[in-house]
Structures are given as C-alpha cells and as structure tokens.
Amino acid sequence: MLACEGVNAFYGPIHALKDVTFAVERGTIVAVLGANGAGKTTLMNTISGLVRPRSGAIHLDGRRIDRLAPERIVRLGVTQVPEGRQLFPDLTVAENLRMGAYLRRGAAVRQDLAAVLERFPALKDRTRQLAGTLSGGEQQMLAIGRALMARPRLLLLDEPSLGLSPILVRQLFRTLGELGREGISMVLAEQNAYLSLEVAQMGIVLETGRVALQGPSPELRQTDRVRQLYLGVRSGDVSPQGGGAPGGKGT
Amino acid sequence: MRGVLFALLLVGLLAAVPLWAKTYDLYLLSLAAANVIAAVGLALLTGFTGQLSIGNAGFLAIGAYGAALIVKHLGVEFWVAIPLAGLLSGLTGFLLLIPALRLTAIYLAIATLAFGTAVSEALPRWASVTGGYQGMRVPPARFLGLNVQNDVAMFYLALAVTVVMVLLARNLIRSRVGRAFIAIRDKPAAAQACGVSLTRYKALAFFLSALFTGIAGGLYAHVVGYISPSEFGLGKSINLFVMIALGGMASLPGPVLGAVFLTYLPHWLSGIRGLQDVLYGAALIGIVVFMPYGAWGFVRKWTAPDKVARLPRPVRAAAEFVLGRTR
Question: N or C of chain A: less Cβ packing under 10 Å?
Fold first, then answer.
C-alpha cells in the first residue's frame, strides 16, 4: 500500500535519507532498524509529510503523497505516533483522544473513543485527567490510542518503546501485534530489534540514511550483520537471549 | 457550573454599579471593559495558540480609528460600527500570518513589534484621515437612533459588548478550534500528525485576536471620545502583554483579572511618575521566574491543582532568551 522510491531528504545541510526504497504491503508490519542518527525519524517524518523529500516519490495506494500537506496525508489514512509520544500535556486524556479524530466528526468518533478506552482500560478512569500527569506507560497507550482515533490504514510508530520498562515494552508489542492482525499496516521504527522483528513480517536496516539490508524478518534475523549489530549476538552464538537488550547496537 | 454562577453574579453586580457609582468610576469601568476584550484577544493568540505578539496595540489602533471613521463618515449605529471595526482589524490580522508561518517565540514577537510600530508611525503621517499627531474626536455612539452622551449608557454598552466577547471566547476555547489552538501551542508536530493544519489555525488565531482587539479599540474610542496615535504605541502593546502575563495567559479569568488590575493601577499610582514602567518590568520578570501560572494559575493551584495551565512554552522560550537563562 505504501511505496517509497529513491527518497532523498535533508535536515538543513545533512543528507538524512539517501535513495531510500522500500514498500509496505497491505496488512503487514515493516520494522525499521538502525542506530541513533540512522534516519529512522526522518523517514517517518517524510512519509507523514512533516519533512519534504528533495527527490524521489512516495505513493500510497498508487497515489503520490510526498508533496501533500501533513493534514492531507492524515486524511488519506496515514497516522504517525511521533517519537517521544508528543501528547498534549494541557489537554485531558479524552481531549487528546478527540484530537486524534480531529478530521472526523459525529457518532463514530464517540464509538471509537469507547473502543480505545476498552482496549486500554488503564486510561478509562483517567479520561478527565491532564495527559501531562500520566505515567510513561499510560502516555504511550494514550499516544497509540490517539493515533487509532484517526482510523488509520497505515500507522507510523517512531520508537514507541522509548523509556518504557521491559514489562511495558512486552505489553506494547503485544498490542502492536493485535493491531497488525486486525489489518492495520505499520511502519515501526525501533531500537529494540529483537521484539520488532518478532512482530514484523518485513524489516529494513538503515545505516547513515541508506537502506543497508531489507527482507522478511526471519531472514533478516539470520544475517550476521543484524545479529551482531542489533541483536547483540556474536557470530557463533546460537540462540538470542531475553528481551533483545539494545546494548549491542551501533559500533 | 460554579464558574457560570459566579460569572452571572459578577455581571449582575456590575449591572447594578450605576445605582451608586460616580461618573468617573463608570468611565474607569468602561475603560476596563475595553481592556478586558483586548486582553482576551491577546490571550487567544499568545496564551492559547502560543503565538507571541507584542504588536497588538496596532490592532487596537485600527479598531479605534476604524470605528471613529466609520461613525464619522457613515453615521451608522454603534452595534454596526463596532463589528465593522473589528472585522477591519481582523482582516489586517492575516498580515501577521506571513511571519507567523516562519517564525516562533521571540523572533515572531519582533515581527509583531514591527507591525505595531508601523501602525503607530503611519497614523500621524496620514493626517488627512486620522488628524495627525493631534488625534481626532470620536463622534458620540448612536444606539437605536439616540446619541449616547452619558457615561451610564456607555457603561452598559461596554458591559454588554464585553459579556458577548468573553462568552464567545469561552465557547471558542472549549470547542475543537480551541483544542486545535492548544495543540499547536504545545506540540505543533503532533498537532499536524492529528490532521490540524498549522496554516489554517494560525491564520484563524491571528484573525480572531485582531478581531477581538479591534472591537476593544472601537469600544475604547467611544468610551474616551478622543483618540491620538501616541496611545497605541509599543507601550500599549507591552501593557496588553503584561495584563495577560500577570493574570495567567492560558486561561480566560486570567486576562480579565490582569486587564482590570492594570486599568486601575495607573490611578492608584498617579503622582509617582515612571514608577509604573518599573513595576511592569519587575512584574514580568517575577512572573516568569516565580509564578509561571500567573495570578489565576496561582489561585487554581490551590483550588484545582490538576488543571493548572503553565506559561506557554513559546513564551517561556522567549522569556528565557531575553533573561539569558534556562530554567
């Protein structure tokens, strides 16, 4: 449903994305791996329209979207969960969720609100609380809930596990898996390579703005490069242990 | 609900003031009413949308001169002239969208300052229309075919306009438009990710702020009966900013309190020249450092601690830039 072809993007003088080409099939999750500064966030911001690519093209269901304003792209069904969650701290939980459905009106919004609160029961008792006063895990749920309120067909998740405890990270990935099975396509930028390759069908590895590797997750998990740099497994070791501590990334 | 009852009680009390007040008290209250509308207009822009403006006196001038000229040349009624003046000012508000789409915090403030200065410099030079440095007399307001000549009638008109404008602002900030403003102020990128168009809502914020301030200017012109360019300079813009900062700019009661307080302050301090400006400066620094919630936020901290709105981030950024510190 999403296709990036030869996308080049700049942050000021920095060439942040170099000829990035990849595709997201309908109903699949694509994990984007890479160290800090590899271009993950830029890729997300470019797809969602916050950054305009200098060259290349991005198509959504055959329609070119890389010159559209961000709100137009949201309207087409692409919703971003920005890095660091970016909730509206001075709005309540319910108001944050309603912001997610900003482009929609009517009874369906109320139904979706109830559905999101059903999915994240921890938020249910806190609908009138200011979002800035939630715990980290609750904030992440709210960020995803807010994105779901737009009824996205494609969800862009930028480091959703950032700053969460290992238990919450597991819970988060379980939720993402569920959403994937419900038919929402996703691009998932993560440092937690182990869990994201588990939940995703496909993966791409970004290194200094370039796609270094891409393929189905099971294959990607077997390559030496991914094992060494992102899974923290030395060549020769057999089974990856535990929650894929991000300690081994970068060099 | 308690707030609504309290507001009704307040308006009722105010409506009864002419029973005992002296003319000068009514004049001061009418002046406060105009300031309240202007402060609410600035709070919509700076407090709720995070667009720092220290040029809003320009809109006040456009509203004041607009209303005066409309009444003078068209002879229309008060309730036609005031909205027209507001609309005129509102449309010029779109001018500030050009810098607002490119600049934030202190840099936007400088651009708005340039706008305010341009207006207050243009007025005396366009003497054939505005009367130049001497200013111009404002014809008495006409209401239902009568000339409004006395202060009691003017007070009631001012009170009515203020109630309408404050109610408008209240409903606005509780609507989806208000939520979009706050979203843009706090997290512009996330607001876009939710589908909020920055261009459209910044334009709306500048339009509404200019509209409110223009209406305040029209009201001011009628209350005072005489306007001159010197009243609408940089000093007035800063005065408006101090009103909302002092009261608590990310709220509605805040600008109302601040506007009333700063209307009366010069009368309490009359006789001590120059002290006012010193107090303004001290108050601004004190608020940024010690009371980032303003007076209303200070009250709310005790009554509703989970609902306190801080000084908006763009304003904090600008303040830190000026004071040369980060906190």
Answer: C
